[in-house]
């Protein structure tokens, strides 16, 4: 029995696990009960994730991000799916310790691995537990869009296919729109870029979303590039273990008069509203937005999760850490708000 009664920061909340679903021998789903007063705060987009605070005897707690496998359009409650990883403290704790009725501390939904529109065809690629954000997008595209959806799903063997029955039912429900292609390592070996390129070649006009282990992602990137899919149509979800504590409230940064006088000016568009802010050179974008009481999306503040990704429309910033962004993302104007500091005097940024 695990119970949390009081959150450790002003942004997090305590949610009850309403159901635990054993998906495979090494994967389970946790369904959360969201009280009425938190429905708006926990409204989510397909492909987003939740950050969970997991108790630790060694460090007090660790923070881990888990994708939502549910869809806001088809499922009544948010659901994450967790697969055990070798020596993975967070995943093993959640698989061993959590039961229905337990409570966990959770940050609101976050992440930018989500379609801007459903008015086109999709090529979805997942491996192992990388299916979790992918199936959220898949169900949403089938419900909200009218295009075709192709899923390529790689696993070790047939017994490790998460959501096998749900995918079978969806394929029967949408026979002309959904195509599911399973790749089993036990039968076909590890997927090579050349083999994947042949499979994805007919779908280069689709919008591609991928999630999975590093080698799989590398192979898919190379396959899509080889097949001629434009980089602007390719979206990848990357997770890193968070080293900081995103549940702790951030202390305001003390600034000298000189720092304040040398500040840049930034127009930030957030949730359809534009805010004009003074941006001191030593502060990050997330710092100044939090100081102004804005509900800026962020989780780790370490440049490790991508929650605070946004787009520079005008001006230039510098970033200390940005490993979760591809070079193509940075070239397209994407930045991490928790790592960005102003270079130019005037900027426009959009979340």
From TrEMBL:
Names of required cofactors: FAD
Location of the FAD-binding FR-type domain: 10-116
InterPro entries: 2Fe-2S_ferredoxin-like_sf, 2Fe-2S_ferredoxin-type, 2Fe2S_fd_BS, Beta-grasp_dom_sf, Cbr1-like_FAD-bd_dom, FAD-bd_FR_type, Flavoprot_Pyr_Nucl_cyt_Rdtase, FNR_nucleotide-bd
Residue span(s) of domain 2Fe-2S ferredoxin-type: 264-351
Alphabetical keyword list: 2Fe-2S, FAD, Flavoprotein, Iron, Iron-sulfur, Metal-binding, Oxidoreductase
Keyword Ion transport: no
Annotated protein name in UniProt: Ferredoxin--NADP reductase
Species this chain originates from: Rhodococcus chondri
């Amino acid at each position: 029995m695990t119970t949390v009664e009081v959150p450790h920061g002003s942004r997090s909340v305590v949610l009850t696990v309403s159901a635990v679903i054993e998906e495979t021998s090494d994967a389970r789903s946790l369904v959360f009960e969201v009280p009425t007063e938190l429905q708006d705060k926990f409204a989510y987009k397909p492909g987003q994730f939740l950050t969970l605070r997991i108790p630790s005897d060694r460090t007090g707690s660790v923070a881990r991000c888990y994708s939502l496998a549910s869809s806001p359009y088809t499922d009544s409650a948010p659901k994450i799916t967790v697969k055990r990883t070798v020596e993975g403290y967070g995943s093993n704790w959640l698989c061993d310790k959590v039961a229905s009725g337990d409570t966990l501390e959770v940050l609101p939904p976050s992440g930018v691995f989500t379609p801007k529109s459903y008015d086109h065809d999709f090529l979805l690629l997942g491996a192992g537990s990388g299916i979790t954000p992918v199936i959220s997008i898949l169900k949403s595209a089938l419900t909200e869009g009218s295009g075709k959806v192709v899923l390529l799903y790689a696993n070790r063997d047939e017994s490790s296919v998460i959501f096998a029955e749900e995918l079978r039912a969806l394929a029967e429900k949408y026979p002309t729109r959904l195509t599911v292609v399973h790749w089993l390592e036990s039968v076909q070996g590890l997927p090579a870029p050349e083999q994947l390129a042949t499979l994805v070649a007919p779908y280069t006009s689709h919008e591609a979303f991928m999630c999975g282990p590093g080698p799989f992602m590398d192979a898919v990137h190379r396959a899509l590039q080889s097949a001629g899919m434009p980089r602007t149509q390719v979206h990848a979800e990357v997770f890193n273990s968070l080293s900081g504590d995103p549940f702790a409230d951030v202390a305001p940064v003390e600034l000298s008069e000189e720092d304040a006088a040398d500040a840049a000016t930034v127009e930030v568009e957030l949730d359809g509203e534009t805010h004009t802010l003074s941006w001191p050179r030593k502060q990050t974008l997330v710092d100044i937005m939090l100081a102004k009481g804005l509900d800026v999306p962020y989780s780790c503040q370490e440049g490790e999760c991508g929650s605070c990704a946004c787009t520079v429309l005008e001006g230039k910033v510098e970033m200390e850490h940005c490993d979760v962004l591809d070079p193509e993302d940075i070239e397209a104007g994407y930045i991490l708000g928790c790592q960005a500091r102003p270079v130019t005097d005037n900027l426009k940024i959009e979340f």
